[in-house]
Write a structure and sequence with these properties.
- InterPro entries: Gfo/Idh/MocA-like_OxRdtase_N, NAD(P)-bd_dom_sf.
- One of its GO terms (molecular function) is nucleotide binding.
- This is Oxidoreductase.
- With 331 residues, this protein is α/β, with parallel strands linked by helices.
- It has 2 domains: 123 residues, NAD(P)-binding Rossmann-like Domain (Rossmann fold); 176 residues, 2-Layer Sandwich (Dihydrodipicolinate Reductase, domain 2), CATH 3.30.360.
- Helices cover 37% and strands 23% of the residues.
- It has 11 helices and 14 strands.
- An 8-stranded mixed β-sheet has the order 8-9-10-7-11-12-13-14, with helices on one face. Strands 3-2-1-4-5-6 form a 6-stranded parallel β-sheet, sandwiched between helices.
- Helix 5 packs antiparallel against helix 10 and helix 8 crosses helix 10.
Length: 331
């Protein structure tokens, strides 16, 4: 198995480590946290032994492990990934991998120069259910006529924001907001299924903190539009849809996809058989490890291309809405 270090001790790093255990792809050997107590508690909760703990990031990346998984606040991804690459580590970084396309370009170039991998962890595009969507879209591509994708979920941190606190996900300092969280899933859907859009526009509901609580995004393609609805300040239970003229593919959710239906012109709705892993990060763990073990540059280049387009679309959308991050001023 590939030796793994992680940055962060939150629920998503725990889920990723469990996925690597289930798939026998990576072996946790090093943990970085700002406090030793949190790191040790994290390791104990996972029932891990012989795991090294670091509270200094520079010394952490000099340790002897192969790959790092980074799941810190968005604005920290760039500096942490850059330091990891400079120390010869392969990088798996949570989406979005950077706050700006300039940051992404720097990491892309540096990883190539150092001969290491950098993966953006958009886990849902690796799941079997998403692969089934790709098959359906490819089969009916001649009739493809657009899509409506929705991912709105009331944030567990929004109440704290309303109480006057300053959660990371609702600040420009940490590159927060609906677009750079839930919106990344929907943009990945569009880019992987339909390619790079020609024009991008985003109408955002901007909170007092300067980030978007929700918004509507339009991606224009030569023959159709993709309309996207994202939000972290309200819940939506609306299905997402991909249109093929008279027929429609229904997704229960554009980000956390669990069920597919096909609706025809006569309003007949039939289930599209597929499968779903209990841990949604299993598939990406297996794919990242496979690419590294087999040195599959074709698959890697495809994922890198998707990430490059998604990060550019994110910045174009944010710019069109007048959203400014502190990271913009640093580049």
């Amino acid at each position: 198995m590939i030796s793994l270090g992680i940055v962060g001790t939150n629920w998503i790093t725990e889920q990723f480590v469990k996925a690597t255990d289930e798939t026998k792809t990576f072996s946790l050997t090093h943990v970085y946290s700002r406090t030793e107590i949190k790191a040790k508690s994290f390791i104990e909760d996972l029932n891990k032994k012989n795991v090294n703990v670091s509270t200094d990031l520079n010394s952490f990346f000099k340790e002897n492990f192969n790959t790092v998984y980074i799941a810190s606040p968005n604005s920290l991804h760039f500096s942490q990934a850059k330091l990891a690459i400079e120390n010869g580590k392969n990088v798996i970084v949570e989406k979005p991998s950077t706050s700006t396309i300039e940051e992404f370009t720097i990491l892309d170039k540096l990883a190539h120069e150092k001969g290491v991998y950098i993966f953006e962890a958009a886990r849902h595009i690796h799941e079997p259910i998403f692969k089934k969507i790709q098959i359906v879209v490819d089969k009916h591509r001649d009739n493809l006529s657009g899509a409506t994708l929705s991912y709105m979920k009331y944030s567990s941190r929004y109440d704290a924001y309303l109480e006057g606190k300053n959660p990371n996900v609702f600040t420009t300092k940490f590159s927060g907001g609906a677009l750079y969280d839930l919106g990344v899933y929907t943009i990945y859907d569009a880019v992987v299924l339909f390619g790079r859009p020609g024009k991008v526009s985003y109408e955002a509901e901007i909170l007092d903190s300067g980030i978007d609580g929700s918004g509507t995004l339009t991606l224009k393609y030569p023959k159709f539009d993709v309309n996207i609805i994202v939000g972290k300040t309200k819940n939506s239970y609306m299905s997402s849809e991909i249109y093929f003229g008279r027929d429609t593919l229904l997704l229960d959710n554009a980000g956390d996809i669990n069920h597919l239906d096909w609706a025809d012109d006569n309003k007949n709705i039939t289930d599209v058989p597929t499968s779903k892993s209990e841990n949604p990060m299993d598939s990406e763990a297996k794919e990242f490890a496979r690419i590294m073990n087999e040195n599959d540059t074709v698959s890697y280049d495809k994922l890198l291309k998707y990430a490059r387009i998604v990060n550019r679309v994110l910045e174009q959308a944010r710019t069109s809405a007048g959203l400014v991050f502190e990271a913009d001023e640093e580049n």
